[in-house]
Amino acid sequence: QVQLVESGGGLVQPGGSLRLSCVASVRRFSINVMGWYRQAPGKQRELVADITRAGNTNYADSVKGRGTISRDNAKNTVYLEMNTLKPEDTAVYYCNAITYSGGRYWGQGTQVTVSS
User: Is the pLDDT at 66 greater than 90, yes or no?
Assistant: First the structure.
């Protein structure tokens, strides 16, 4: 069983920055990949960035150079820092975790709105 709790969303002006965090409460399983996805109105959920337990990262082209994903394995926490935010970044951001056994889990989502 894995529970994911996100925080850090809110209203940000274009060009601004934010930091999202996600804390995983895990029982019996170990998490391999943690990542952030987002879903804008009328669009499918898409990957923003993910990171393996070893620290290898992957970013969507739309956030390369603007986003940084990191994690604290001891705390089972993943972070997403984004700067130079654009209105196109407006979406519900979801935390995701994949265990070594193949289980996939999602957080409840946190709203990020980029607007002046």
Answer: yes
